[in-house]
Write a structure and sequence with these properties.
This protein is of the alpha/beta class. It contains 10 helices and 10 strands. A 6-stranded mixed beta sheet has the order 6-7-8-3-9-10, with helices on both faces. The protein has a 4-stranded antiparallel beta sheet with strand order 2-1-4-5, covered by helices on one side. A hairpin with a 2-residue loop joins strand 9 (215-220) and strand 10 (223-229). The chain binds adenosine-5'-triphosphate. Adenosine-5'-triphosphate binds at residues 11, 16, 34, 36-42, 204. It comes from Paenibacillus agricola. Residues 2-246 form the ABC transporter domain.
C-alpha cells in the first residue's frame, strides 16, 4: 500500500533523512521510534506533501505521491493526527463544524452526486463522535470547553471522517497524562479492529509503541537502524541505539 524508497531530505545542506525505506501494508500498525530530532516528523511531512524530499520516492499503491495531484485520492487515503490536539483544532469552530468540514471537502455524502443534507451531515458527525467515545452533546462545544484528551478524540474522529486507509499518528499521546494515554491506546486498538485502517504511529516512547504496534522502525539521526517486531525490539534488540532507547525508558505503566 505505502512504499517509501531511498527517501532523503536535507534542510539548507543539513541532511536530516538518509535513504529511508519501509512499507506499510493494509491493516498494519507500524511504529516509528527515535529520539527528538531524529527525523520522524520529517518523514510524516514528506508523506503528506508538506515537505519535498531531496531524493527518493513515496508510492501509494504503486503511484508516486510526489507527482500526484494534491487533490487526488491519496489526500483522502492518508490522514494525520498531530501531537497537540488544541493547536490542531480551530478554536472558533464548534466540534460539529470541525468534523463536518472533511466530510464536505472530501464529498463523503452517501449520494456522491448531491450535497450533504444538513440532517444527514449531523447524523454522520454524531456517528464519528460515538466512534471515538464522545456523544452528541459535544457537537455544539468549542475546543476550549473540552479536555486535551477529548480534543485528541475529536482530532482522531476528524482523521477518520474521509475514510482513510492509513492514519499517521505523530506523537498523539505525548500531550496526555498516563491514565488518558492508556484510554487512548484502547481506543486506537478498537478503531483499528473496526475501521480497517493502518497506522504509522510515531513516538519517542518505546513502551507505548510496543503496546500498540506489530512492527517497529527505529530511526537514529535520519537513518532507520532497526526494523523489528515489537517483541523482537525488547527481547531480541538488534541495534545499540535501540538498547539505549530501552535503557532510557523509565519503568512504564502496564497498559493491560
Ligand atoms: N523546516 C526545517 N528547517 C530546518 N531544519 C528542520 C526543519 N524541520 C526539521 N528540521 C530539522 O530536522 C531534524 C529532524 O526534525 P524532526 O522534527 O523530523 O525530528 P523528530 O524526530 O520528529 O523530533 P521530535 O520528536 O522532537 O518531534 C531536526 O534536526 C530539526 O531541527
Amino acid at each position: 500500500m505505502l512504499q517509501i524508497n531511498n527517501l532523503s531530505k536535507a534542510f539548507r545542506g543539513k541532511q536530516v533523512l538518509r535513504d529511508i525505506r519501509f512499507s506499510v501494508a493494509p491493516g498494519e500498525i507500524v511504529g516509528l521510534i527515535g529520539m527528538s530530532g531524529s527525523g520522524k516528523s520529517t518523514i510524516a511531512k514528506c508523506m503528506l506533501g508538506l515537505e519535498k524530499p531531496t531524493e527518493g520516492e513515496i508510492l501509494w499503491n504503486g503511484r508516486s505521491l510526489l507527482t500526484w495531484n494534491q487533490k487526488s485520492s491519496w489526500r483522502q487515503a492518508i490522514q494525520i493526527v498531530f501531537q497537540d490536539p488544541r493547536a490542531s483544532l480551530n478554536p472558533r469552530w464548534t466540534i460539529q463544524r470541525s468534523l463536518a468540514e472533511p466530510l464536505i471537502n472530501f464529498n463523503m455524502a452517501s449520494d456522491k452526486r448531491s450535497k450533504w443534507q444538513p440532517k444527514e451531515l449531523d447524523t454522520r458527525v454524531q456517528q464519528l463522535l460515538l466512534e471515538v467515545g464522545l456523544d452528541e452533546r459535544f457537537m455544539q462545544r468549542y475546543p476550549d470547553e473540552l479536555s486535551t484528551g477529548q480534543c485528541q478524540r475529536v482530532c482522531i474522529a476528524r482523521a477518520l471522517a474521509p475514510g482513510p486507509k492509513l492514519i499517521v499518528l505523530d506523537e498523539p499521546l505525548s500531550a496526555l497524562d498516563v491514565t488518558i494515554q492508556a484510554q487512548m491506546l484502547v481506543l486506537l486498538k478498537e478503531l483499528h479492529a473496526t475501521q480497517q485502517v493502518s497506522y504509522l504511529f510515531i513516538s519517542h516512547d518505546i513502551a507505548v509503541v510496543s503496546e500498540l504496534c506489530e512492527r517497529v522502525l527505529v530511526i537514529d539521526k535520519g537513518i532507520i537502524v532497526e526494523d523489528n517486531t515489537a517483541q523482537g525490539l525488547i527481547y531480541d534488540t538488534k541495534h545499540a541505539y535501540t538498547r539505549k532507547l530501552l535503557a532510557d525508558t523509565p519503568s512504564y505503566p502496564n497498559f493491560d
